[in-house]
Specification:
Layout (H helix, E strand, L loop, with lengths): L2 E9 L3 E11 L6 H5 L4 H12 L10 H5 L15 E4 L6 E5 L5 H14 L10 E7 L3 E11 L7 E10 L2 H6 L1 H29 L2 H7 L7 H9 L3 H5 L4 H18 L12 H22 L3 H16 L1 H6 L12 H8 L1 H13 L2 E5 L3 H12 L9 E5 L10 E4 L7 H4 L4 E8 L13 H4 E6 L11 H11 L5 H28 L4 H10 L7 H12 L4 H19 L1
Parallel strand pairs: 8-10, 8-11, 9-10
Antiparallel strand pairs: 1-2, 1-7, 2-4, 3-4, 5-6, 6-7, 11-12
Helix pairs in contact: 6-10, 6-11, 11-12, 14-15, 19-20, 20-22
């Protein structure tokens, strides 16, 4: 990541100062001259001088700067070479010293330091804030206090800033940076608090100051004597700067690798938008848990909920870790269940009914859910892969249960649910058999109180079954066929949502739109139910964009 992390301090004598800075140096790309022939010795010497000049360049810059620095403004001595870490995978070097290696970055970091400790602060003077511009870079700053028994007000003011030129990337990394910078800040504050309590126990400074005689002549000397305390003395951490170098280096590496750029041909799909929204919500929720009181217990509660399967992204990732045979595709599931049973099960999935699989093999059940979830948009999927108790339909439409869990009466008698009991026909070593023997190992019993016929529609299922029954089409071709069908019907959902929900048209006009979309005729009732269910899976981004566009169009004529 092309960014820089710095620890800044507001000195009572010299104002805002940069204490410690970590930057990433990417390996140079091969030049045309190096590819054409051997390098010249003079060039090699110049490159070596260029590489060795950097770390202590600013620390040894001038006697004037050294004269203006007290102990509170200095992190490493002038003779210290700094810290260097090398990423073996990418070849990136992470360099740390009091000031940046490159001269052009010195003024950028200096300006970010001054603004973070003067005018760009959040209410209460503690917390995160974002500022910057295209010329001087964009800054994510987190200000905080460190306890000091000798300081004015018994605390000193610090900030950690991350400077980057990419505004969008820095804003998208806000939850990640906030979460991990708070861990570093809390570690510094807790260590300094222990030192503060010990010093107060030996000599309470509040009583000393109240009993001392105040005079204008003595006050400047008192301030100057108390101002020169370094962060190392405040925390009594012998390896403080090496620890900060490790933390900042990891932060730069992790922040640079967590987000990747992808070239998309056209606008992002609804599934992509929903996945981005869910990931953002999870990061924000974790930040809230960690920031609130009792964060540890709440974080554990969040983790227990995710283990139940509320996290759509993690369910499929854990599937390979589970033992036993598994379903590999929709065609495989159809071959095991049979054509009629598969159609009945797929019909319930597409209509939005709750699909319950009850059995003793979590891996087999979760693999069936993974295959069936491909029939729906991501926004319509709410899954609990395996649970020891029944979960209501409003929580999940895919529910896996252990074999001893009883189904409530109101669920078994409802037409909006389907139960698949998975029972073992004989006891054997399941891990030793192949995936093709699922039908010989298990028996599947499907039951539902639904009385409506499932052989008429929806039209999407009819077309999908034609593709699945065609053995000349490979599994990949069928997957692409299903993807095209989902995109086609998702476009119909968007038209219906715009027409019925946003514009508020009547029933007669809506019927005309349905006819125009090709959803009338045989299986019309199933097609309409599918459209209404899929409408709930539209992304918040699309809905808000559509509402904004419509309201803007309504205001423009009056203006």
């Amino acid at each position: 990541m092309n960014a820089l992390v710095a620890l800044c301090h507001f000195c009572e004598l010299h104002g805002p100062r940069t204490l410690f800075c970590t930057e990433a140096l990417h390996p140079p790309s091969p030049s045309p001259s190096s590819q054409a022939g051997p390098s010249v010795p003079g060039d090699r010497d110049r490159d070596g001088d260029r590489e060795g000049e950097g770390l202590t360049m600013r620390a040894n810059s001038s006697a004037t700067q050294r004269g203006e620095m007290c102990e509170g403004c200095r992190s490493l001595p002038a003779s210290h070479p700094g810290f260097v870490s090398i990423d073996d995978e990418t070849g990136i070097r992470f360099l740390s010293h009091q000031h940046p290696r490159q001269p052009q970055l010195f003024s950028v970091v200096r300006q970010a330091c001054v603004r973070s400790l003067s005018c760009e602060v959040c209410p209460g003077r503690e917390g995160p804030i974002f500022f910057g511009d295209e010329q001087h870079g964009f800054v994510f700053s987190h200000t905080f206090f460190i306890k000091d028994s000798l300081a004015r007000g018994f605390q000193r003011w610090y900030s950690i800033v991350m400077v980057a030129m990419d505004r969008i990337y820095l804003i998208n990394s806000w939850p990640f940076l906030l979460r991990h910078l708070r861990l570093t800040i809390q570690s510094l504050q807790s260590t300094a608090l222990k030192v503060f309590d010990n010093e107060q126990g030996v000599c309470p400074q509040r009583a000393v100051r109240m009993n001392s005689v105040f005079s204008p002549a003595v006050f400047p000397h008192q301030r100057s004597g108390n101002a020169a305390r370094s962060l190392t003395s405040l925390t009594e951490h012998p390896n403080l700067w090496a620890s900060l170098h490790s933390s900042f280096s990891w932060l730069l590496k992790a922040c640079g690798s967590r987000l990747t750029e992808k070239l998309l041909e056209g606008a992002p799909t609804e599934d992509t938008l929903v996945l981005i929204e869910r990931q953002t919500e999870q990061e924000e929720e974790m930040s809230c848990w960690e920031g609130a009181e009792g964060g540890a217990s709440k974080t554990q509660r969040y983790q227990s909920e995710s283990e139940l399967g509320h996290d759509f992204l993690c369910d499929d990732a854990k599937l390979d870790e589970l033992p036993g045979p598994k379903f590999k595709s929709l065609r495989h599931l159809r071959q095991v269940l049979g054509a009629a049973e598969f159609r009945q099960l797929a019909w319930h999935v597409l209509m939005g009914n709750q699909v319950i699989l009850r059995g003793a093999d979590p891996g087999l059940i979760q693999s069936a859910f993974t295959v069936l979830k491909s029939l729906l948009p991501v926004g319509c999927v709410r899954s609990v892969p395996y649970s020891a108790q029944y979960e209501e339909a409003y929580k999940c439409n895919f529910l896996g249960l252990s074999p001893d869990v009883a189904i409530p009466t109101h669920v078994s008698s409802s037409e909006f649910s389907v139960l698949v009991d998975v029972s073992s026909e004989r006891v054997c070593q399941i891990s030793a058999v192949g995936e093709d023997s699922i039908s010989s190992l298990y028996q599947f019993t499907i039951s539902s109180a639904n009385t409506q016929p499932t052989d008429r529609g929806p039209s999407l299922l009819n077309k999908l079954e034609v593709a699945l029954s065609n053995e000349n089409l490979s599994v990949d071709v069928v997957s692409h066929c299903l993807l095209c069908l989902k995109e086609e019907w998702m476009n119909k959902v968007k038209v219906l949502f715009k027409f019925s929900k946003v514009d508020g048209r009547g029933r007669e006009d809506t019927q005309k739109v349905l006819a125009l979309l090709g959803t009338t005729g045989p299986g019309e009732e199933d097609n309409v139910r599918l459209l209404k269910f899929w409408m709930t899976g539209l992304s918040k981004t699309y809905k808000s964009h559509l509402m904004t566009a419509v309201r803007g169009g309504e205001r423009s004529p009056s203006q």
